[in-house]
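Person: I keep going back and forth on a fold encoding question. Show me how you would write down a chain together with its backbone fold. Please set it down just below, with no commentary around it:
Helper:
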Amino acid sequence: MNYQLFKDILSIDSTSGKERGMALWLNDHLDAPSKELMEVGDGTLNLLLSWGTPKVVFCTHMDTVPPYIKPQAKWDTLASLGMTETPSVIHMKSERPTVISTERSEGENLISGRGSCDAKGQIFAMYTACKELEAEEHTDFGLLILAGEETGSWGAKAFSKTGFKAPFLIVGEPTDNKMVSAAKGTLSYDLKFTGEAFHSGYPECGTSAVELFCAFHSALKAVDWGIDPELGETTWNIGLLSSPNPQNSLSPELTCRLYFRTTFISHEAVQRWMQEIAGQAGNDEAAPAITPSAPAVMPDAPASVMPDLIGHLTVTPRGGDVPARYVVLDGFESAPVAFGSDAPHLTGFGHKIICGPGSITVAHRDNEHVLVSDLETAVRQYVRMAVELINCK
């Protein structure tokens, strides 16, 4: 395996928004009978490599979350192996102090750095598999490398507008080389709490946007969304929270983003709950059409805690993805996941698989890494999947 290529890919900063340089470099350095760069529309590029008319398309993304972290490994020792043999005694390690969160990493060879598993390790493993398929004289497959997955799947959405079609799609994400049986959906909302500034010594004379947020937060924590038999609990997170008031003044405004990870039984219920919140707050026009996923049990209405928010809360839906099931081939391990991917946004494909090397438990962390053994396993599995699907009637 060409570990020098992997080092070079990891050495390029392709933090979301900076993917264009990565796409141009990959176009210059990856070899395929056909290569096509495609504008996304925001300054970034997608890249499609093709061997014949693709029946099976490998796909992953080139953008990474910030901050950029350089690759850390004993590359000189790898070079002594000619960059072609699997390292057998080399231990890759980061120069940063880290805590490895997967027990099976201890004592194993690993490569660290931003994107090592999410998702430049996927690019490396998928391209290596493509070259092995080529060497074995297979044809009718491709490799699609997308921009903008981490910030809204903008590359995937742009590619779907091209009208490209193929029977099979294999999306690379860090799944411990297990095929994803099902993935949670997402729903995102921008929230704006509007208070009335006043001297903090006299809180009874004003309205704190922070207190309004706390009331909403408490109501949301009290909701029982149920346990999905496939996907488990519904979870949510608050991000981009801002309330820049001075310490001696009540907050006049707090803004944040609410991000749900939904299940088959909760996706519709979350939308209806948020619609009711928006309606009680007085901005019904912000409520989106319900996106059906599966029959859901509506949780208790939030009426008892919402009166305080009337006229003080604006809810702006940002959309999301419905929870989905994916193809699992015989003879492969599988498991459900709680993270999103480009898969829901890639139309034109008859059947979708999600599978790849690396663990989601280290993605987006300072100690992000991928095991060398995982990369090797991924290449073997990708080749096996492609041959099986290419020959599928």
User: Anything to note?
Assistant: The CA atoms of residues 125 and 379 lie 5 Å apart.
